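Dear colleague,

Thank you for sharing your sequence with our group. We've completed the structure prediction you requested, and as agreed, I am returning the results in plain text so they can be pasted directly into your records. Please verify that the sequence below matches your submission; if there's any discrepancy, let me know and we will rerun it promptly.
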Amino acid sequence: FDDSAPGITEGLRAGMWTVGLAVTGNAIGLTEAEWRDLTAEQQSVLKEKAYSELYQAGAHFVVDSLADAIPVIQQIMAKRARHQRP
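Please find the predicted structure tokens below.
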């Protein structure tokens, strides 16, 4: 899990499954209060840009925050059970 393109790149170089954190980290770079003060349209634009940046860096998955991590971890565990690698 990382919130920046360089962090995703590091994970890939280490041969790990990588998960980008789009909303709650450096990809957007706002505090929670600043995020809440944005309009839904502004949030959507920033979120789309962050998702795109993290996927372009090679992230296998991208989620809004760690609160969304459990389903991704379950998917990764299922892939590992099938002997799939990143």
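Summary note from our side: The first strand starts at residue 19 and ends at 21.

Kind regards,
the structure core
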